[in-house]
Automatic annotation (TrEMBL):
It comes from the Bacteria. Residues 529-568 have a biased composition (Low complexity). It comes from Ruminococcus albus (strain ATCC 27210 / DSM 20455 / JCM 14654 / NCDO 2250 / 7). Transmembrane segments: none annotated. This is endo-1,4-beta-xylanase. GO terms for molecular function: endo-1,4-beta-xylanase activity; hydrolase activity, acting on carbon-nitrogen (but not peptide) bonds. InterPro entries: CenC_carb-bd, ConA-like_dom_sf, Galactose-bd-like_sf, GH11/12, GH11_AS_1, GH11_dom, Glyco_hydro/deAcase_b/a-brl, Glyco_hydro_11. The keyword Hydrolase applies. It is an enzyme of class 3 (hydrolase). Residues 577-757 form the NodB homology domain. Residues 1-20 form the signal peptide. Belongs to the glycosyl hydrolase 11 (cellulase G) family. Pathway: Glycan degradation; xylan degradation.
């Protein structure tokens, strides 16, 4: 494929599964592993020092090597694919990896950067390049950000479509797309390549990866769910070598070029977007797509059409240049909006401050379908210390499409033409802001004081009603309970009591919409057979235990069960490290579930098993798990996303599964419930206020195709860095890889002094209570 950037796919049909263990070789000062490919062994894939790597070759009789650096994410490599008439292909890459069906797009992460220094050489035959490389799904895209190349570049491909150019990291990049049909991460099918080629070639520097993603989307090239982001060295019919020092990360770049201020299209303003010649660098937020459209326009002939919104916070967004618009200063913000249905539309701001991503409302309006409405705030202050600032349009009560036109930022006091809805009320708190704590998954609201107010109250709209959370707030801040689900949106109203009266109508009219945002990894959990649950139930479980241990569950239900279990030496020592490895879903058709139960029992361990009522195909296996001391717990009846159904349905999902489990084991199951998709919100927590809700601290990713080696290493790494102690670990009993991993890692944990226990036993041993309506990921 001399005139294409061809896909050297890493075993596409089994992507995400680790291949053979890398071959070890001599260790140098900067490297610890050397991988070798040959005609009979064409690929090595795996993880090392938190970086994913791959070396691959094809159609060559020669061998190539990749040596992984031990002190950074870099590597050195040598390849030999020509000139030998072998038509050989080669690549070596290392970086960030999520695998197939990652639910997140690049917008769900902080910006990606790559700091690199590459010393490399390639011969005069064939072609070679160094680049950022990866895949995304929905749509299926293979992408390249080419920093340097030898002999040929994709710009010389006659089938490449030129999309335009952009300036990033101090250089012009030309952007191309090509359509292909070949091997992909999803099998052999059609896909599109997105390619940025740097015009001022270089071999070291900082690559602002996410900036390319944003520019591509502004050109109509949608970036879907991320599969990987890696630094790549590759060659076609070429010989060469490279040594790469590499640091790839998510967060703030150390490189800050001086940006050129944009020239506004509208006289008297500092920034404007009229969308007459494209999207003006606006992009879709969440799942939304944006495009310049001639269907509707407030001024001129075109506007920005925002479609494909699957969540209220989805919409259109644009970056705010903080070199031009200084944090701490006040400006006038305005946008004309036209929703497809009558609803509230909001102009909002997202920004990072002190390591936390925050959100605040700029302006909002009650809009009529088909009518243009101005959203404007003529005196809005960009928070001091803000970075990564974005302005965006959303509809908090609707998933409708939205047209946006004439977006403006101007000096404070500037008033754009058009009608603005008026919501001002002296007795309603203003300047409401929300700060999200990703560690505790809770929100903190602040607002400006209302003159004469002695109390404040806060309410949230749940299950079709406004529900008061607190009406005795003395100051101007409120912090929610912990354990809120990241990515969920809420309507919140804040009222003030002035002269003994509450103006709740005005407070509701001025509600704000907030969304919990987290850039940290989600983590999960499990339950057990020794519970302290809030039911009226006394279970006397007399366990035959060589340590003479009596296990008493004090539950509150009117039900007495006597269950004789063989305890097999199981005893929880509160002074030793412990972990609650839990298993979800139901009994599998194969033998994986039974293998897991047997491996736990063989090692004298216990675990919590969360069953989906409708997925229990082997009731005898559930009974066997119970007889061996495992905690039998609830994972709902049909595994719905509880945040998307009504409160009575939530209750029914829990109660029906509990009844089924009770009918199988002849006793009350654990009160614990694993949240399907780990999703929760205030309604779920209020409806199940008597049920401890379990998430996780460590996700083994077995549901996402992780190999037994990866699952085992996830647990071992957590044990080695100390995060395993007290953690709830998420696994699934329905995968053979999980069963194999447990057969290997459980004896290792035992040799390291770890106890594997049920969730309930772990909390009891630490003197902690599992309270209803609260989400747990570990014992504190």
């Amino acid at each position: 494929m001399k005139t294409t950037v061809s896909k050297r796919i890493i075993s596409a049909l089994v992507s995400g599964v680790l291949m053979a263990t890398p071959i070890m070789s001599a260790v140098t000062a900067s490297a610890a592993k050397t991988l070798t490919t040959s005609p009979s062994h064409t690929q090595e894939v795996g993880w090392y020092n938190d970086y994913h790597h791959e070396i691959w070759q094809a159609d060559t009789p020669n061998s190539s090597t990749m040596t992984l650096h031990d002190n950074d994410g870099g590597f050195s490599t040598q390849w030999k694919c020509g000139p030998n008439n072998s038509r050989g292909n080669f690549l070596a890459r290392r970086g960030l990896y999520w695998g197939l069906n990652n639910p997140k797009t690049y917008k769900d992460y902080k910006p990606f950067y790559c700091d690199y220094d590459c010393s490399w050489y390639a011969g005069s035959s064939g072609n070679s390049r160094i680049c950022i490389y990866g895949w995304a799904q929905n749509p299926l895209v293979e992408y390249y950000i080419i920093e340097d190349w030898k002999n040929w570049s994709p710009a010389q491909d006659g089938s490449a479509q030129y999309k335009g150019q952009t300036t990033i990291d101090g250089s012009v990049y030309k952007v191309y797309t090509t359509s292909r049909n070949s091997y992909t991460i999803e099998g052999n099918k059609n896909f599109t390549q997105y390619i940025s080629i740097r015009q001022n070639l270089r071999t070291k520097g900082t690559i602002s990866v996410s900036e390319h993603f944003k520019v591509w989307e502004s050109m109509g090239m949608k970036m879907g769910n991320l599969y990987e982001v890696a630094f790549n060295v590759e060659g076609w019919e070429s010989d060469g070598q490279a040594d790469v020092t590499l640091n790839m990360y998510e967060g703030e770049s150390g490189y800050h070029p001086d940006p050129e201020p944009e020239e506004s299209e509208i006289e008297g303003t500092l920034y404007s977007a009229t969308f007459e010649n494209g999207t003006n660098y606006w992009s879709g937020r969440g799942s939304a797509s944006v495009a310049s459209s001639s269907s509707k326009a407030y001024e001129g002939s075109k506007s920005l059409y925002v479609s494909g919104r699957t969540a209220n916070w989805n919409g259109g967004e644009v970056e705010v240049n903080t070199s031009t618009f200084k944090p701490g200063n006040s400006y006038s913000f305005s946008a004309m909006v036209n929703p497809a249905e009558s609803t509230t539309v909001q102009l909002s701001m997202q920004y990072d401050q002190n390591g936390t991503t925050k959100y605040t409302q700029i302006a909002e309006g009650s809009c009529t379908a088909g009518k243009w409405t101005k959203l404007e705030n003529t005196n809005f202050t960009i928070p001091s210390g803000a970075s990564n600032v974005k302005m965006y349009v959303e509809a908090p009560d609707s998933l409708c499409d939205i047209y946006v036109d004439r977006a403006i930022i101007a000096d404070k006091g500037y008033v754009a033409s058009g009608d603005t809805p008026v919501y001002n009320n002296a007795n309603v708190p203003s300047n409401v802001k929300m700060e999200y704590n990703s560690q505790y998954k809770q929100m903190k609201f602040t607002w400006d004081a209302v003159n004469g107010a002695d109390k404040y109250g806060i309410a949230v709209y749940l299950a079709g009603k406004w529900r008061v959370q607190d009406s005795n707030i003395s100051g101007t801040s409120y912090t929610t309970p912990k354990g809120l689900t990241p990515g969920m949106s809420y309507k919140v109203a804040i009222a003030a009591r002035v002269n003994g009266k509450w103006d709740t109508t005005a407070a509701i009219d001025n509600y704000v919409v907030v969304t919990t945002r987290s850039y940290n990894n989600i983590q999960y959990h499990t339950p057990s057979n020794t519970n302290t649950n809030t039911n009226t139930n006394t279970n006397t479980n007399t366990n035959t235990n060589t340590n003479t241990n009596t296990n008493t569950n004090t539950n509150t239900n009117t039900n007495t069960n006597t269950n004789t279990n063989t305890n097999n030496g199981y005893y929880v020592d509160p002074n030793k490290p412990m972990v609650a490895i839990s298993f979800d879903d139901g009994t599998a058709q194969g033998y994986s579930g039974q293998k897991i139960i047997d491996a736990l029992y063989k090692n004298g361990f216990r675990a919590t098993f969360f069953y989906v009522g409708n997925w229990i195909g082997k009731p005898d296996q559930v009974r066997d798990a119970y007889s061996k001391g495992m905690e039998i717990a609830n994972h709902t009846t049909s595994h719905p996303n509880l945040t998307e159904i009504q409160s009575y349905q939530i209750r029914s999902e829990y109660d029906n599964c509990a009844s089924k489990l009770k009918s199988i084991i002849g006793a009350e199951p654990s009160k614990l419930m694993r949240l399907p998709y780990l999703a929760s919100n205030w309604q779920v927590q209020q409806t199940l206020n008597d049920v401890p809700l379990i998430s996780c601290a460590i996700d083994t990713q077995d549901w996402n195709g992780a190999s037994a080696y990866q699952i085992e290493n996830t647990i071992k790494n957590a044990a080695n860095n100390g995060s395993l102690n007290g953690a709830i670990v998420l696994c699934h009993e329905t995968y053979d890889n999980t069963a194999t991993a447990m057969e290997n890692v459980l004896p290792w944990l035992k040799s390291q002094g770890y106890q594997v226990v049920t969730i309930s036993d772990m909390f009891k041993a630490k003197g902690k209570t599992l309270n209803g309506g609260q989400v747990y990921t570990r014992v504190s």
